[in-house]
Amino acid sequence: xxxxxxxxxxxxxxxxxxxxxxxxxxxxxxxxxxxxxxxxxxxxxxxxxxxxxxxxxxxxxxxxxxxxxxxxxxxxxxxxxxxxxxxxxxxxxxxxxxxxxxxxxxxxxxxxxxxxxxxxxxxxxxxxxxxxxxxxxxxxxxxxxxxxxxxxxxxxxxxxxxxxxxxxxxxxxxxxxxxxxxxxxxxxxxxxxxxxxxxxxxxxxxxxxxxxxxxxxxxxxxxxxxxxxxxxxxxxxxxxxxxxxxxxxxxxxxxxxxxxxxxxxx
Length: 266
What we know:
Helices cover 42% and strands 23% of the residues. It has helices spanning 10-32, 49-55, 70-79, 117-126, 146-156, 160-170, 179-186, 206-214, 218-224, 229-244; strands spanning 39-43, 62-67, 85-89, 102-108, 128-139, 190-203, 252-264.
């Protein structure tokens, strides 16, 4: 099993997370670094947030993007117009590339959905040349995403299944302080550095916030579609109450923190 992420539709993913990935991607590139002429691998490209942000740098030589989901591979392939970009379906834990084939390997919001995250980091190291860079970033679900925590805490208050969902959500792999950094060290990377990156998630109204999840997208959406109509209605009402917080429906903004780690291939 190479991914635990739940996706039905690329546009639905863009509504739940892709639009925020696009805001995070430039910060991640600044942290990971790039240089003219490099060959860069985007591991777990999703709908192309990092891929197309990299393509915005005309000096890069080649950008290869892989994802485990054929839904994402098709979406990125359809949207791509840059001849430097090559997209293919592949497993992050068994990358189909020769040793030292790239100058950098980068993973944007991916490793927390890979059950064998250490193996994925090992593969990223393998396909990057000595002196090249491996970098990854994941959300801090436990303490860095108040908008999403508001949602899962509300669901958890309504029953045991919701509490189990919250436990899975808050403690996915690579999300605790220092956890991903330690994995990079264990996989033999050098000069390993950890940092926090922050964006804001800005929603127009409650439907903008809750709609794609209620429709079944992402890990929380996967939980919602298992419920009966009465329980779904109860959760919808409770999450709406939490979002509105006693004020009329409308725009809301939430700060969101991600852990970023980079390391050099010795």
